[in-house]
Amino acid sequence: MVEQMPETILQFGGGSFLRAFADVFVHEANARGEAVGRIVVVQSTEGNRAALLNAQGGKYHVVFRGLADGEEIDRTLAVRSISRALIAKSEWAQVIQVARSPELRMVISNTTEAGYSLIDNDDPETPLSFPARLLCVLKARYQAGLPGLTVLPCELVEPNGDLLRELVLGQAEAWRLDAGLQDWIRRDVRWVNTLVDRIVSGRPDAHPLLAADGLLTAAEPFALWVVDARAGDLFNHPCIRFVSDVRPYALRKVRILNGTHTALVCKALPMGLRTVREAVEDPAISRWLRRLVFEEIVPALEHVVEDAGPFAEHVLERFANPFLDHRLEDIALHHEEKVRVRLMPSYEAFLEAFGRPPELLGEILAAYRDAWR
Questions:
Q1: How many CB atoms lie within 10 A of CB 240?
Q2: Which are the contacts of 4, defined by CB distance < 8 A and separation ≥ 6?
Q3: Mean pLDDT of 36-44
Q4: DSSP per-residue string spanning 190-219
Q5: What's the rounded mean pLDDT across residues 315-320?
Q6: Nearest Cα to 45, choosing from 112, 120, 117?
Q7: Amino acid 248: pLDDT
Q8: Residues 109-149: pLDDT tens digits?
Q9: pLDDT band per the 50, 70, 90 thresholds, residue 373
Q10: Which of 50, 66, 262, 289 is the most buried (most CB within 10 A)?
Q11: Per-residue pLDDT at 200 exceeds 80
């Protein structure tokens, strides 16, 4: 019985993406008999997500709609991998109790790119930033004499595991924590670089379960979790690929898929278009997008990663998924930071490669340069 499995994963973030991605993989591995365990979700943002998860006993549904190998997919999965949810601001002591559990093995996170920062004068008793909260979790385990954890960040920064480790150690220095803890963090905690890839559109506008499930979400059938082999004994899933170097996969995906998503927010949202599909179905935007991708983003990338062009064609096909309504306003969350991380590097790479600024990327970025100065 899944309900009797121990809580082995502490997850920072319980939004639609993780619920339709890592949490689905854990559920499916449990169903195959791998006994990965259950997930405790930590809610760091405002909202009623934790309350809904607890009210529903951690159970919810994901609707997978789209095309896979030419076959139409429309299936709904009942996910049972989450045991409970805690609110960081008001239930931090309970989070630390989970940290001290001998059963705990992993930390998964998706705090978006904005989560990769420290807060001045953060308090170790009531930490606010994600790296500070993770440090407190690790400190509690260290003081309890427990083994280190495997940290699997899902944020779209590169290299996410290495950067997160340095942020946590930087916070430890700022708090003047003892050298033994810092050495333990370096030696006994597995900081794993990863890349996540699945389009999750969020709550569907129409579905028979809308009234019964406050956490119902929709996603495309395609999914890929590229994980550094340093993860060691994780768990197996057809969508998880263990590699020696995540960087080429991350670079290709962030520049092409996520970069074009963010570019569409800049172009299509002011025109009153609501979803990615509506944007790519608009003839003028479709032409603009193909120019952006194949004249500016791909040319500056194809000498660095494999199959940049074919990957871009596949991405545009996924954007046109007739069964998925990926709202542009959802992609626009933390928009300015996404522009900096996802589009600025493509601009700089094109300028370096060809000695001239890319026209379309330049037009997008011009609106943000004054704010960044």
A1: 18
A2: none
A3: 96
A4: EE--EEEE--EEES-SS-TTTTT-TT-EEE
A5: 92
A6: 112
A7: 94
A8: 999 777 899 999 999 999 999 999 999 999 999 999 999 99
A9: low
A10: 262
A11: yes
- The two structure tokens encoding residue 55: 């009210």
Instruction: Return the closest-CA partner of residue 148 out of 159, 137, 164.
Output: 137
Measure the CA–CA gap between 342 and 69, rounded to whole angstroms.
29
Residue 4 has pLDDT above 90, yes or no: no
Q: Is the pLDDT of residue 367 over 90?
A: no
Q: Please provide residue 63's backbone torsions phi and psi, each rounded to the nearest 5 degrees.
A: -100, 120
Count, residues in the chain: 373
Find where tokens 């150690």 sit: 169
Number of alpha carbons in the 13 Å side-chain half-sphere of residue 310: 3
Structural tokens at position 81: 């991998």
pLDDT in tens, 102-113: 999 999 999 977
* Helices of type H across the chain: 16-20, 22-31, 49-55, 92-99, 130-143, 160-174, 179-188, 247-253, 259-268, 276-281, 283-291, 308-319, 328-331, 335-342, 344-354, 359-372
Query: What number of CA atoms fall less than 13 Å from residue 108's CA on the CB side?
Result: 25
Q: Identify the pLDDT of residue 344.
A: 96
DSSP 303: T
Q: Which helix (H) or strand (E) holds 227?
A: strand 224-228
- Tokens linked to 191: 């900081």
| Helix axes 335-342 and 344-354, enclosed angle (nearest 10) | 30
Please give the pLDDT value at position 2. Answer: 74
Q: Which amino acid is at 38?
A: R
Six-digit token string for 227? 């994980």
Secondary structure (DSSP) of 233-252? S----TTEEEES--HHHHHH
